[in-house]
Amino acid sequence: MRSYSTRPDRRSPLRRLRNLGIALTAGAALTAASLAAQDDPAPEPAPEPAPEAVPAAPSLLFLRANKVIVSPGKSLDNMGLLVRDGRIVAMGTDLAAPEGVETIEGEVICAAFIDPWSVAGVDASSARTDRVDTASRATDALDPYGQDEVLDDLLESGVLMLRVEIGSAAAVSGVGAVIRADGAVPVLADAAISARLYAPGLDPVSRVGQVDRLASALGGAKKYADDVATYESNLKTWEEEIAKKETELAEDFKKAKKSRDKKVKEAKEEGEELKEKKYKEDKRPRPPKFDAKKASLARAVGGEVPMVIHVEQALELRELLRVTRPFTRMRLVLAGGRSALLFADELAERGIPVIVTPAPSSPGGDVGEMDPGFALAGELSARGVEVLIGSGATSASASRDLPLLAAAAVGHGLDEDAAFHAITAGPARVFDLQSKVGSVRRGLHADLLVLSGDPLSSSTRVLASISGGKVVHQAGN
Amino acid sequence: MFTSLILSAAAAASGSSVPADGTSWTIHADKVYTSTGKVHESALIVVDGGKIRAITPGVEATRDALKAAVVTAGMIDASARLNSGTASVEQSSEVTPLISAEFGVDLFSPGWGRLARTGITSAFITPLNQNCIGGMGMVLKTAGDRSVKGRTVEGAPMICGAIGSQPSQRNSSAFGRPTSFFNRRPTTRMGVEWEWRKSFFEAAQAKEPDASQKVLLDALAGKVGVFVQAWATQDIRTAVFLKEEMAREGFGEMRLVIDAGAEAWREPAMLVRTNTAVILPPVPAQGRTTDGALMSVECARVLRDNGISFALSGHGGSRLDLQAGLAMRGGITREEALRAVTLTPAQLLGVDGRVGSVEAGKDADLILWNGEPFEATTRPVGVLVGGHLALDPR
Amino acid sequence: MLISCLIAAAPLLGATAADDAFALRASHVHVGNGQVVLDAFVVVEDGVVKSVSNNAPRGVRVVEVDGHIAPGFISLRETLGAGSENAERTRKSTPTADLSFAFDPTSPNWKGLVSEGVTTVLLPAGNSQIAGGQAAIVSPAAGEVLKRNAVVTLGLSRAALGSSTAPTSFAGLYAHLGEQFAAAPEGSPLAEAKAGKVPVMMRAVTRSEVHRALEFAAAYGLKGAVIGAPEADDLVDELKASGLAVVFESKAAPASSKDVVKSALALSKAEVPFAFTSDAGSQGPLGMRMQAAACMRAGLDAGAALRAMTADAARIAGVDATHGTIATGRAADLVVWSGPPTDLTSRVHSVYAGGHLVHSAHAHGAHQ
Hints:
By secondary structure, chain A is α/β, with parallel strands linked by helices.
């Protein structure tokens, strides 16, 4: 199950099977516990603002700015925000700070930055290893203490949330997570499954072979999911049959018992054993052998979690788009995408977002002449592809410069609102967090930045960073 | 006597020790071990301008005094090995007497702070022992000025080197044409000794000795000390026999100090007859040190019983006081152990005019202990280096 | 001979043939020393800025630009166009080597650099050299060597120590360098450096290396800068006392990036001049601008950041008489930006080097 509280529980068959697997190894209590986890209803509407009546509690925070960027392209002037228990509970132009509540003021308030392609907060060797499989979890590799300097830098520069992944050297690596930079705390423990189709220097046959291997892995996972679904439905049918027979039996028990006793007596008279009739219902359907790797990958195939694939070169990208076409429910996300311009139309049509790491073009490098360099984000966006900007998951500290990367993309053709979307609302939406973060609205979590100017401008300073309602950085402290 | 009465009255009357520039303090200790043999009870030590001004026994603590159970002189690590590794030794030649350790020191390394906070106030730094004769060592304070010059304690000049397997480790014979300067002698212990002897002989026989050879001549004459690392008995023998041979040849009487003399306890007689001092390395965990030398905690006691001057060293590790405690376990007294980490290394390195004991006029390098020093349950709670607090007891 | 052939060849990026006078009019003209003139005309004649004023010039073609004009950036190290030609590895000391010979004006890497607003570059020796030679100041856009033998480069970091070549120790390095300085004949580069006539650039990375370098500079009366020094914030007092400047490298290595930001702020506060390099970081030609932007986001004033990339860099390289600011008599190395020059969101519209238009971005939505 996707372990955050406000996501509706879809109860997919795969989820059931995974729970069954846990039960097989760990006992019923665990199954009961996981199945019994309750989901919150949709967030309740915030009460009407009545600042005078709200008592000054430690979990209250008041923010005010001349401009609040509610979402990319939409801003409101001269607004106050009230934050309580980590959520934005009130927004308004006539909002006043309640008595005794900590107040932070600035020029601009906007959603905090989210790095959709990062390794900050993850133990360095786990990030680079190739010894992972699709069932490995990034939450097992979080390292808040070893990475504390990197994470502190992130709080100062306003990148408060990260999608991290491990096993960048593996072909298909594990389940990534979205974490808060403050303490490397997971917000969404299973955010995406990542794969890598980038192997510069490999010959073309082997490169296509990589894609084929991925396709067969996806196919295998889909088959596994289908087998599980079949098992589930067979099990259901079997249980229904059993229940029907039992009710029939309950009704006609006496009659049936009498008839069976008669048969037993007859058999005994003839000196034979009574051969009991075997009913089809006696044979309980057997579940397919539990395969954690396939189960995990099947979640991506089924579209439950997005799948992020790092691909730069045109050959791999073309093949990838071709082999993933049959998997209609799959939510594909590209990372890198230096030659994605060649397939921009298909990407736009299929709604596949691209996580771009603005980097200089290297003419004659492994992507060759197709590498547009820093202009990639702008050119993709102009062709209708949803662009996200990430730091590239090669070095933990690179996440600090995420707003600079977005600004550099603007300086090379990306529309400013699209750039802001690429590091706030975009990552939130693609990784299923849009109901929690990514924009500034009542009811959403308070992951905000108070700035001295426009968020992407190089002369802007982050005056305060608020992560989940907690002030994790304040300039001048 | 009369002076000390007046001083004590004055000290008691003033009572204030608020440091103006951070180098003036008043310290009161229940016991002061001076390292000279004298022990003061309930003494007040006045520090001013980075020097010990006065020690007054038998007085009560003043209001602002730093208080300690015991005060001793700051420890001197006679072989601290806090250099910048291979960048501190000029390996293009095996005999480089002119290279100074000053360029191979990184004063910004956190190791210095660790030494200072655990009571080691001065350290003898040498180039890395990859050369036969690596260069000139120097005594540096472990805290204070940020430049090497500001931290140097001028002492007896010493050329430093090694006899054993270490200097020959990187060298190899060339397969065909030599490809680097590491294709050279020495590749064995014989070769190492050959290099030593060769450089002394050539210096002694040179008609116009160059700068390096002048230093070697001074070493032969005993004006410059010779600080040789020799772990195992065979290497200590080599060093001592070399000294005797040079004397026999009439080149002069060297002043020999054996560094890391782990097996010095095996044949003390030769050390006694040549008046050689020994710096002991940290006691090894499994009984054997580098070069397979066998050493136990009793090593210090054997040297003491034979009347050999010895000092303890920590090799840059920060628990010299624990090494002293282990030596006590081996049989020496606390006074002797204290001497071995304070006055004796100061004398061997020629810096006993400034450091090494708690006496008026010397540098204010002091350790404030929370109990009898060198006990496992005691640790330094305050450290002063040149009057500055490296570890604050308050 | 070789250099003059290269110079005779047409400049790399399609310069306009005409040398006639023209004026640029822009809403903001950043002079480079912190001053910004609003709604100004910059008059260029014969490759040199003739005037900067609010008055419309007469009898001159006026080009209206929608944006900000700033001096071309000066990168105090860029070896992309030199390959490995700046390190003579058979010898640690070649103090008289003329590094302008390492300049390859036809290298395709220069184009990217110029399109990011860098018009002047210092080509120093490699880090593995102790006295690698005299750096040249070149204009990659024009394909010209602007000044030969401009700066004496000294390598005083661990990279200059050999593992199997002499010297292997800092003591050996400084002994060797001392001998070189002592033996340097009158008029030779090292002698000129000792006399303070030619600036030096000393590469030192760790704090103790920088400390040693400062002591060496003090002993020999050297002027110039330390290049590297990511932890310069720990040595501010010593740097201030030495009169030397600091040039920050834009390395891809993670740790140093953070320290550079802190160090830049500390030096700015202490009024120690500093500059940046564009040298082959992970952001390529954008490295210098990203480095400056990172410092600005941490609190460095925009004017100080621009100075570090223009006027101060020129002063460190010893070319402040002709480059680094937009002022009468200075070379017309100008960049037209769509917004403030230090802002990463600004685009380069056009680049002028020596009065010639050497780069012009296409209008909105540039596609390749």
